[in-house]
Amino acid sequence: MSFVRPVDMDTTLNYMYKTLKPGTERKLENFNGKRKISVFRGDHYLNKITRKLSDPPFTLIRYMRNTGTAADPKLGTATIAFKAPDGDILVYFDQPGDSMKGVLLNVFRKNFLPYKKKFANLMELRQDDYFKLLLSRLTGKDFTTHGINNVK
Prior knowledge:
alpha+beta
């Protein structure tokens, strides 16, 4: 009896970077009507774009740079962008593909001053109370009491 091992998303994205022509977009998912997932291949990067089809709509863009070669791409997340109707959250990785080397948070909200803060890693950012408060205000969900990883 043979078993089929599922392919992880990083392997799929590396393959898509290798096979897609720059300037093309490919849809990955729109099965449940709740979100659309697609990828866009640029010259030296790949964007994984997740659009939540809710009211209000949200968009999460994972910008990945190729740190490998053209023949053997190794995509590393360089920036995560969360776009909401009343503001944007941008998280820049100091070293693409390694969230443990430091991240920079930028938050832009309508009618508020921008917020910028440096964190040692992505886990520290997710535990920051002010970040959770900003995220709660942008999404309308309460991240302050349960944390980011516990909200569905």
